[in-house]
Amino acid sequence: MATHITIFFVVIIIFIFNGHTNGLLHGLNEGQVTDTTMHRVDCKGDVEMEDDAWMMVQKSGNQFVVNNQPFYVNGFNTYWLMVFAVDNSTRGKVTQVFQQASDVGLTVCRTWAFNDGQWRALQKKPFVYDEDVFKALDFVVSEAKKFNIRLILSLTNNWDAYGGKPQYVKWGKEAGLNLTNDDDFFFHPTLKSYYKSHVKTVLNRVNTVTNMTYKDDPTIFAWELINEPRCESDPSGDKLQEWIEEMAVYVKTIDPKHLVEIGLEGFYGPSTPNKVQYNPNTYAQQVGTDFIRNHQVLGVDFASVHIYADSWISPSISNDHIAFTKSWMQSHIDDAENYLGMPVVFSEFGVSKKDPGYNESYRDNLISTVYNTLLDSAKKGGSGGGSLLWQVFPDGTEYMDDGYAIILSKSPSTSSIISRHSTRLTLFNSLCKWKCHWGCKKKHEFDGGFHFLDEL
pTM of this prediction? Predict the structure, then answer.
């Protein structure tokens, strides 16, 4: 009886603290948190762990873990943080977006750790860096830690924004190389050496604010090889596959501690003809990417998928977009479980205000669809590892909005949905931790008490 009373009061305290009793229960789809939800991660003996230790995110099977406890991602994208941090007049926006994101419970941010040969370039040309810009990236990393936000750092771009693949090819041509296509980036040895040099430079960087080497810093959640890679000159996917195989291993040789992901959009390719039906259009299977094959590579730790129904299917808002989002997500979650044995993060998703028929209610519906699909996976111990909104901006940056920006202070309904999802994940992770902890330390004493929590 005493055990039941103890558990009851712990749960009540959590509910009061979060202030979302009804939302939490509804957020778990009015179902039970069953035993299968909790036993995916084994405890390590009787070692006492600090709940909020700032340690590396790792993976155990198809789940992310911190301190051997489940860690589900609720995050966002803000790509321009490094560039804004260079100038004192805009540096405060970095702090502001982290503060506002933290206030609604967001825990991971994806941003660029590259700016190749452009305005305020980090890499001015191969092997040459602007120290002031690097110090700005140092600030971004250190500032994220202050707000308990981890970073996914992308190392280059498929597109020409911030330089990326086209800039590497331009550098190659300036060096006298006979290059004919931007896709030469993926197989020309000199261009690959340029990219590897950048990887090595960033990973070995000693942060001038924290004095910690990037490759040792738990603030960094993962390295992303390249944002949205495509190799349209080779629809077979062989060229891109070889590049991924080489670069994933290369990153791991420098930094075996951090997770690595590719940065794919998630399109199915030639290796899985039975899966191309899930692609948003026929063009998607001809861009040289191959979701399952690409992720079956040594050194790749988790899968990435993007969701842009308004770009891929039609710009006009319709219910078809929601249906596509559900099937797209479920297909990739199933693949991550059945073929890959790893978590999958939906690392970009959103809808543009510029789309015909757009309204904030639709955006909220889309976000809720993504969140609920991930919660369904989490309750089953599945591979749905989390999601990252594209994109969260602070106040005063509307002039940079590409249509997808969410300014939390001006979007109360959206902010409420994000905050509620954060609270649900916090409770869910807490339940996982309690179950694991009690299973190790006081198995017999707490068995009956935890059944009470299962009934939630």
Answer: 0.86
